[in-house]
Amino acid sequence: MVSGQNNKLAARTYQKQFAGLAQAVFNVKAVFGPTFGVLQALDGVQNNKTAFSVKTNNVPVVVGKYSVDANTAFGTGTGKSSRFGDRTEIIYEDLDVPYTDEWNFHEGIDRATVNNDVNAALANRLELQAQALTRKFNKANGQFLVDSAAEDLGAATDVTKLFNAASKKFLELEVDVPVRAYVSADVYNNIVDLGLTTSAKRSTVSIDENGVTMFKGFTITEVPDQYLAGSQVIFAPDNIGRTFTGINTARTIESEDFDGVALQGHGKFGQWILEDNKQAVFTAGVSKSTPAK
Hints:
phage-related protein like fold, 5-stranded mixed sheet, 6-stranded mixed sheet, about 290 residues, Major head protein, alpha+beta
């Protein structure tokens, strides 16, 4: 018997079920869900490097001036000039978006020792694996945002100064979608305790519930430190990225080594933000003035 092969042992696949379960758990527990949207889960990986392709175009928009010159398109310019000016050809290119990492799990359920219904145990373990994957994706997505940030805005100790600077950045970029500030517990509490957040200024901060939803035009989301990749704040517009996973395998196989089944899973995952949109991602607290990359 060759080690590692199925050798015709009874097997059941759970790729579709696990894809749906992973999406459901991710959509509830994803820390950076507003930025990356719902988890794109694929049943099977057709390409071991590329997750999907998008059409991109980097031709800048040029606003010209209509010509009324007598010799443009008329007179001596007939047939060899245009009053609309130079014509720019628009061509879209295919951009391949790669997977960036992999995941797997390998567990065993022995009927003699599990002390539970095998199917119930399988359902429970698949849900717990989906939760573990969500935590893994949260860490990876946070690291991706920090690595993609156009700039670190410096220390996060003075939250008023920091959020004023961030507000100006997004104003100058003319970002016209909601922007979120993912903040550490320390920064979150500093905002809640800030003297600016008072009922006299119609602030919606609740000291009793230690809650704040908006500050200086940013939606505030408190994030565990483990997901912030060494930063104190990550500023990012909503819905500018995508996160995805391809599920190669989610299965059970009757084991020859014990009276039960092996639960196995393997897949790939990654994140993506269009390069032009990365200029609207900022961090704070990574360093005082150097870029976050």
